[in-house]
Each structure stands twice: as C-alpha cells, then as structure tokens.
Amino acid sequence: MSITMIGVAVVIVMLLLYGSVIFNRFARNRNMVQDAWSNIDVALKKRHDLIPNLVNTVKGYAAHERETLTQVIASRNTAVSVTADDIAGRIKAENQLQQSIGRLFAVAEAYPDLKADTSFLKFQTQLSQIEELLERARRYYNSTVRENNTYGESFPGLLFAGIFNYRHFDFFGIEEDERDNVIVDFRK
User: Fold this and answer.
1) One pLDDT digit (tens) per residue for the chain, 188 residues
2) Which residues contact 127 (CB under 8 A, 6 or more apart)?
3) CA-CA-CA-CA torsion for 184, 87, 140, 105, nearest 10 degrees?
4) What top-level class would CATH report for the domain 3-178?
5) pTM
C-alpha cells in the first residue's frame, strides 16, 4: 500500500467517525425533545381528565353560562383529538384550552357560593398544581427544542441535517393574542 492510499483511508475513517459523532448528536437531541414532550403529554392528560369534573361542578352553580361551559368542553375535546405526533397542532389546541379555562374561572368569580364549594376548591388546587407542572415541563421542552434547533441550523450540523433527517421542532409558547388573557388567581 502506498502512503497516498493510507492517507486516503485515514481521511475516510476520520470522516466516518466525525459523521457518527454528528449523527449521535442529532439522535440525542431528537430523543431529548421527545422525552421532554412526553413530560408535557402526561401533565396535559391530567389536565384533560380534570376538566370535565371542574365543568360539572361549575354547571351546578352557573347553569346559564352554557356558552362558556360548552366552549371549555369543546376546547378540551379538540385538544384530546389532536394526534400525539402533531406537536404544533397540540400546542395550538392547548393554548386555546388554556384560554377557555381562564374564561371559566372568570365566570366562577361571579358566584361566591361556587368559590366556596369544596369540590370546586379541590379542582382549583389540582389544576393549579398541574399548571405548575406544565410550566416546568414547558421550560424543559423549550430548552431541548432550542438545543436541537440550534444544532441543526448551525455549523457543522447544518451540513449533515438533510443526510441525518434533522427535524425542526416548534417551541411551546403563548401566541401574542393570548397574552392579554384573564388572570386566574386561585388564592381568592
């Protein structure tokens, strides 16, 4: 073997090793995002399970608020029906559900007897805990998305993104028109 062939073989081996390091980083980033999303998914399931009980409790006190109650259930059903692999669709549906829940608690403010009901208070506390869990899970998810997207959109990842099926993920944030929403304070 000539020195040229040995040199070419060494370069090929180094490129293969470098490529495998980049591939492994893409795989690690994708798995971290999927793990982070599964944490959100668990909290969302808890929220979805709690909402019908909360709505039924409010119904007993505020039956004439049918439109708000119907909207909350419709938003919940929409959020539940979005497929698990449609992260962008899930984010949009969950943001709409969050708006509906805010309106539900705004309605509840008008009913002092409801605000004192033990079942309602229990559901408020549970929802508050779930929302705190969701907030932590969102921060972790967005952190992993940022790392994944940055690597896939910068050098050297950008060179290999197409080869290794890089996937860009959406952040789980609040849309601009939802920022001025009703503020729910469970301490009242």
Assistant:
1) 789 999 999 999 999 999 999 999 999 999 999 999 999 999 999 999 999 999 988 888 887 788 889 999 999 999 999 998 899 999 999 999 999 999 888 888 888 888 888 889 899 999 999 999 999 999 999 999 999 999 999 998 988 898 898 999 999 987 655 545 444 444 44
2) 47, 50, 54, 101, 186
3) 10
4) mainly alpha
5) 0.79
- The tokens 């007993």 sit on which residue? 60
Give the span between the Cα atoms of 145 and 34, in whole angstroms: 9
